[in-house]
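Action item from last week, closing it out:
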Amino acid sequence: MYSLKEGVFIKSISENQSVIFDYNNSYYFSLDATSTEILELVIDDKFAHLDDIAQKLENKYDVDQQTLTSDINDFLGSLLEKDLLVSSNVK
C-alpha cells in the first residue's frame, strides 16, 4: 500500500507527538497523535484498503467513514507531495 521513502523515519517524541525525519533532505515534520496513528496504520501491512483504516478509526474519533477516508487521502497526498511516502499497489 504505502511505505516510508528510503531515508525517511518516524520517531515518537511524546505520547501526543511524533516526528518524521527526512534524512535525504535534512527536514523534519511534526505529527500530532491522530496523524501518527493514521500513518502507522497506513504503513502497516495488515490493512489492504484505506476504507479499512477509516472503519477502524470511525468509532474512536466519532467521525463518519466517508469523512475519515477523505481526510486520510488528503493527509497521504500531502506526505506524497513532500516525497516522504512511496505508493505501491494502492487498492
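Closing note: The first helix runs from residue 33 to 43.
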